[in-house]
Design a protein that fits this description.
Number of strands: 0
Organism: Huiozyma naganishii (strain ATCC MYA-139 / BCRC 22969 / CBS 8797 / KCTC 17520 / NBRC 10181 / NCYC 3082 / Yp74L-3) (Yeast)
Distance between the termini: 34 Å
Largest sheet: none
Keywords: Membrane, Transmembrane, Transmembrane helix
Structural class: mainly alpha
Helix content: over 70%
Strand content: under 5%
GO biological process, one term: chromosome organization
GO cellular component, one term: endoplasmic reticulum membrane
Protein name: Very-long-chain (3R)-3-hydroxyacyl-CoA dehydratase
């Protein structure tokens, strides 16, 4: 039974890593062809579906291996809650082909940062940790000092634009929730970044 669970875990990590790499490849093909103007129409549904698949799977595996108490203390829960909130905040836009929020350059920066960082994270989860090689140390530095800040800053900008847009005002309670998240977003992102540096 444990052998099947180990194989399923490796399959999940491999499939998630390949799908995030496919997200980056899809962006790299679409952006030169259609620019940021029509990019949401070709990539938004895939992005939201991939984030949901990756976060729900990661939470389930975390519950399997760390139990509830370990999952509640992990940085994985914070990252997954953040990405699920992003999906909920950005997916309520009914006409994402014409949304000004998703046509911003921050959307492309978010896709680049998210796809490459999550591809790296899920790919490294498949292998046992040994003594780091020069190349893996270089990849870790790129992940920590370039990809994570790009992802978090572009996500913050997208959430800020989402609050400012007229499409985000569906109910006053939802608007207050968005503003509260924006207040706590950067401090929590800095805490997550500091944990990633260790």
């Amino acid at each position: 039974m444990t052998r099947i669970i180990n194989r399923l875990y490796i399959y999940y990590q491999l499939s998630t890593s390949v799908l995030f790499l496919a997200l980056f490849a899809r962006w790299a093909v679409l952006y030169p062809l259609v620019s940021g103007r029509f990019l949401p129409g070709g990539i938004h549904v895939f992005l939201i579906s991939l984030i949901c698949y990756a976060t729900v799977g990661e939470l389930l595996w975390s519950l399997k291996f760390r139990r509830v108490s370990g999952t509640l203390k992990s940085a994985t829960l914070l990252k997954d809650a953040n990405l699920l909130y992003f999906c909920l905040a950005m997916n309520h836009i009914s006409d994402y082909d014409h949304s000004l929020v998703l046509k911003n350059i921050s959307y492309s920066a978010f896709i680049i940062g998210l796809s490459l960082s999550q591809c790296y994270v899920h790919a490294t989860q498949m292998f046992k940790r040994g003594e780091p090689l020069w190349f893996s140390g270089f990849l870790r530095r790129v992940y920590v000092y370039i990809l994570l800040p790009v992802m978090h800053l572009s996500e913050f900008n997208l959430l800020l634009l989402n609050v400012q847009s007229s499409q985000s005002i569906e109910s006053p309670v939802l608007d207050i929730v968005h503003k509260i998240v924006l207040v706590f977003f950067l401090p929590l992102a800095c805490v997550a970044w500091r944990k990633a540096m260790v």
